[in-house]
Amino acid sequence: AQSVTQLDSQVPVFEEAPVELRCNYSSSVSVYLFWYVQYPNQGLQLLLKYLSGSTLVKGINGFEAEFNKSQTSFHLRKPSVHISDTAEYFCAVSDPDGGSQGNLIFGKGTKLSVKP
Amino acid sequence: EPEVTQTPSHQVTQMGQEVILRCVPISNHLYFYWYRQILGQKVEFLVSFYNNEISEKSEIFDDQFSVERPDGSNFTLKIRSTKLEDSAMYFCASRAPGTGEGGEQYFGPGTRLTVT
Question: Which CATH number fits domain A4-115: 1.10.1240.10, 1.10.1520.10, 3.30.70.20, 2.60.40.10?
Answer without folding.
Answer: 2.60.40.10
